[in-house]
Amino acid sequence: MIPTNPKRSTGLRAPCALGKLALATVLLASACGEGDSGPDADATSPIDQYLGLDVNEELQAELKQRTDALTVSCMADQGFKWVPVPADDIDAYVDDESETPQFGSREYAEVYGFGLSTEAFPQSAVGPGLVGYDDSVEPFDDAPTSAPDPNEEYISGLDDVQRGAYYTALYGDFVGPETTEGMTDEEAEDAWDALLESANRGCLEEANQEAGGGRAEAFYSAFGEDLDLAYSRLASDPRIIEFERDQASCLTGKGYSFVDVAGAESAINERLIPLLDDGESGLALTESQRDALSDLQQQEITIALDVIDCGGGINAEEELYDEVIADLEQEFVENNQSRLDAFDDEFGQG
Length: 350
What we know:
By secondary structure, this protein is mainly α. It has helices at residues 20-23, 46-51, 57-77, 87-92, 106-112, 123-126, 152-156, 160-171, 185-198, 202-231, 238-253, 261-276, 287-309, 314-335, 337-347. The longest helix has 30 residues, at 202-231. The protein is globular and about 65 Å long.
């Protein structure tokens, strides 16, 4: 069982940037970034370090090379040819440049607030004077078009049956449970695990696991419950208690009924949802809707700045949680060193 990182349940949310290895189906880490957009972007989890998942450019290149070789071999065993996409071509399709301020920063809050009402509608719908997301270009419009999939010609030469078999070999044929209705969370998780265990996950996923992810799976199977227990101490950490108390006192002192980012976002969403649910006007907002959205966006920006002034905000929370979680994980590693040594003897070092 993979433990639940407690940061996931604190109301934190940030745009999950499409990683280069995710685009190549190579990235081994299960999350889209431990603090990938906040001020602690370079912080490394002790557990990730132990598992060898503290991803950097050198490791990315090594993992891609290893995974590509395994995928080529696997596809060949099933009678197909597969050519890896060169890393330079993957880089070309990932837009790392953005004029938008860093999510969670004061600069971002001054324009977008929490990114809720200000990112709910396209700019063409809200018109001048309001904030919407940029819909003037299609995704990847600026991406180069001179680097097609090197497998495209080969795939086009297959008949329909062969093409279906090719994609099954490459991507697998996993289908989730028909329903988990009426199941407890544990029963639903067991149902998914059973299907995953027996499923054909395809050459890409099998290569991904063999290249490094298999060790992580074995680790979480052996240590997941104990690590969950360590994470459960997060809320009682004195640093977290002090942070939440001070933030709550400041926000209530400003007249708000909420005490943290999650509560602030909930208050914004309560007013935003009726605008999103109005099917009559679609994306062509009426004047009254634009007025309501204008008031909401101004309120959202004010609230977001007040939260930051109270010492809170996405980045402040994430930075503190990263610090406390890293300490809990380091203590876990130190307290379980003999078990981890035995695990290394069986599965190799990360």
